[in-house]
């Protein structure tokens, strides 16, 4: 939370800008030229596991694993047979969703594979994705980092998402969801706008307390130096 507050205050001190608007950070996400993939749902046996990709080769990977010429309709679940591109062996029958950028979580082309959650199925699909040129396993938090870099989430929303994932009580869930929905961000933006107006009201005044205090004897020493 405090990291987000400090960033907004620092932005306000640099000049009047629209701080409440999500926008690109101006720098590319680390490794943004690569397409990443990872298991997005929890580890272990489960009914359904979600494997996600993000990056320019997501559509290519989807075509390879489904042996299809065309991509499915955007943002519609489609039932497809997934196969290993190296051997052609069937891996699973899964629901796939295609999210062309920028209308996706990260702002990049994304694909979700909703597969059966057995360890062998998940491992097989991950290995198949790893064999596609241009794809690599995602680092921890890299999907969210790309969403932030592409202006899909601001700092307070990123922290709210992390809190929501780790929430263990109803109170934690409610607080994290409010932060993810932008409640804290709007509050911080109000403070930032106030700081901006007050700062620019006094010209280029920045950090006044730097000039308030003087070292004891500083005036006397400087006067002696002039004599």
Task: Describe the secondary structure blueprint for this structure.
Elements: H1 2-14, E1 35-39, E2 46-54, H2 58-66, E3 78-83, E4 90-99, E5 110-117, H3 119-130, E6 135-137, H4 142-149, H5 155-166, H6 170-180, H7 183-201, H8 218-226
Parallel strand pairs: 1-6
Antiparallel strand pairs: 1-2, 2-5, 3-4, 4-5
Helix pairs in contact: 1-7, 5-6
Explain this structure.
The chain folds into 2 domains: 35-150, 2-Layer Sandwich (Gyrase A, domain 2), CATH 3.30.1360; 154-200. Helix 1 packs parallel to helix 7 (183-201). Strands 3-4-5-2-1-6 form a 6-stranded mixed beta sheet. It is α+β, with helices and mostly antiparallel strands and 227 residues long. 41% of the residues lie in helices and 18% in strands. The protein has helices at residues 2-14, 58-66, 119-130, 142-149, 155-166, 170-180, 183-201, 218-226, and strands at 35-39, 46-54, 78-83, 90-99, 110-117, 135-137. A hairpin with a 6-residue loop joins strand 1 and strand 2.
Labels describing this entry:
6 strands, alpha+beta, Gyrase A, domain 2, single chain, nucleotide-binding, GTP-binding, 2 domains, TrmE/GcvT-like, disordered C terminus, six-stranded mixed sheet, 18% strand, MnmE_dom2, GTP-bd_TrmE_N, 227 residues, 8 helices, elongated, 41% helix
Largest sheet: 6 strands, mixed
**In which order are the strands of the major sheet placed?**
3-4-5-2-1-6
| Helical content class | 40-55%
Number of strands: 6
Rg for CA atoms? 25 Å
- CATH architecture call of the largest domain: 2-Layer Sandwich
Structural class of the secondary structure composition? alpha+beta
Order of helices and strands: HEEHEEEHEHHHHH
Classified by CATH, the class of the largest domain is Alpha Beta
Overall shape: elongated
Total domains: 2
CATH names the topology of the largest domain as: Gyrase A, domain 2
**How large is the count of helical segments?**
8
Parts with pLDDT < 50 across at least 5 consecutive residues? 8-19, 218-227
Q: Beta-strand level of the residues, as a percent range?
A: 15-25%
Keywords: GTP-binding, Nucleotide-binding, tRNA processing
Subcellular location: Mitochondrion
GO molecular function: GTP binding
Main location: mitochondrion
């Amino acid at each position: 939370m405090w990291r987000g507050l400090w960033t907004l205050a620092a932005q306000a001190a640099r000049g009047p800008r629209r701080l409440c608007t999500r926008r690109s950070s101006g720098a590319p996400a680390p490794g943004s030229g690569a397409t990443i993939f990872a298991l997005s749902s929890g580890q272990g046996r489960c009914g359904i596991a979600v494997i996600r990709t993000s990056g320019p080769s997501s559509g290519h990977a989807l075509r390879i694993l489904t042996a299809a010429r065309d991509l499915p309709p955007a943002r519609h679940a489609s039932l497809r047979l997934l196969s290993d591109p190296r051997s052609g062996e069937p891996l699973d029958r899964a629901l796939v969703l295609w999210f062309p950028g920028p209308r996706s979580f990260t702002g990049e082309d994304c694909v979700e594979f909703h597969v059966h959650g057995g360890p062998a199925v998940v491992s097989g699909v991950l290995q198949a994705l790893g064999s596609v040129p241009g794809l690599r396993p995602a680092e921890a938090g890299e999907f969210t980092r790309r969403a932030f870099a592409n202006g899909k989430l601001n700092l307070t929303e990123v922290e709210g998402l992390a809190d929501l994932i780790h929430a263990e009580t109803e109170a934690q869930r409610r607080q994290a969801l409010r932060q993810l929905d932008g409640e804290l961000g709007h509050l911080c933006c109000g403070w930032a706008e106030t700081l901006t107006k007050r700062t620019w009201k006094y010209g280029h005044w920045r950090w006044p307390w730097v000039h308030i205090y003087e070292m004891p004897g500083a005036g006397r020493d400087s006067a002696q130096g002039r004599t």
